[in-house]
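Bit of a strange request maybe. I'm writing a small parser for structure token strings and I need a real example to test against, not something I typed by hand. Could someone generate the tokens for this chain?
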Amino acid sequence: MTKSTKYLEKIIEVKIDRPMGSKHPKYNYIYPVNYGYIPNTLSGDGEEIDCYVLGIFEPLEIYTGKCIAIIKRLDDNDDKLVIVPENKNYSDDEIKVLTEFQERFFKSEIIRK
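Reply from user aminoacidic:
Good idea to test on real output. This should exercise your parser:
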């Protein structure tokens, strides 16, 4: 198992560096969801642990929510946490659809507790 699994079912504060509606700095797509990271953490790619924030439909700067799943990339060393409001849940299929804009470029699996 990945060390990211310690975040499953935990309440996490996410710093949003790519708010909903913003454009990716290198690639030609718009973020349909808020995307950010957990400050002062370290992911397999040497950067902070990235997070998709689902279930909030406005651009954010900071968000605190529950980690319901991890998108484990099988061909890249960069897991992504899935953060949602405490009273929401999403199926694996819903997570795949909502993150497809970026995850379509990778092979991955969804890990839950």
